[in-house]
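Dear Dr. H.,

I hope your travels went smoothly. While you were away I took the liberty of generating a structure for the chain from your last submission, since the lab meeting agenda had it listed for discussion. I wanted you to have the full record in hand beforehand rather than looking at slides cold. The sequence, exactly as received, is reproduced here:
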Amino acid sequence: MSSKKRKMGEKISNSKQKMSKVKPGRRGPSVVILLLGILLLANVVLMATLSNLNFGFLMQSVLALGVILYALLFGRIPKKVHRVVGALCLIPLACSLFLFVYGNVGNVDFSEDVAIVLGAGIRGETVSRTLAHRLDSALDYWRQNPQAYIIVCGGLGNRAVITEAEAMARYLVANGVDRDKILLEDLSTSTFENLTFAAEILNGRFPDGYRAVLITSDFHTFRAGRIARHLGIAAGWTGSYTDWYTWPQNYLREMVAVLNMWRLMLIN
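The corresponding predicted structure, in token form, is as follows:
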């Protein structure tokens, strides 16, 4: 009897040990995924100190927590589920790659009448790094086409004491652009409003028509170009540099914004 109990105890002990062990082949991926989730969460904190809060922060925070939870439960999840998750991850990666490539293949010939620079947030009276990159691209363009006007777009933000347009104009003037060459669109709070209000100003300035170039971040050019076309603005584009540490937030937010744009266009 005691021998049977001893064997039974050994079986139970062995089974518990097997259950407690993590397969060596599955431990590596879970550690990498956990590290990725932690880095994404740390990036949210970093970005909160550098830029204005937006929907992208919430999206990245949720994604980071989801990735951390997935890593912690990795060993308990069936392989079929892992395959599905891996396949689904390819979709945003492919979309991000498309936005990146599209934004870095401009189509300007430096004979356009006006450059439309889209806003990207300011703090107080200082332009954000993203907006500074857009303005630097505008300066590069203007130096090759000094006859062109530059219209800067952006209203009053929640952490600003002047409008984005005014801050952008000051930045351009400080870098050599004649103030007479700068037009201000200072009422908008979104990309759609940027372009809608800019079109109203430009139609008045150029009654016989005009050719424009959109200057915005590389990830943003696709959506901005589609909205411009929808509004009847004949425009090429050039994408400005995007800091690598802003990629998660910016690309996540932009993919959702593109989907929402298509939804609104289908409705209208």
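Two observations you may find useful: The domain at 114-244+260-267 is CATH 3.40.50.620 (Rossmann fold). Strands lie at 114-117, 122-123, 126-127, 149-153, 182-185, 212-217, 235-240.

With kind regards,
E. W.
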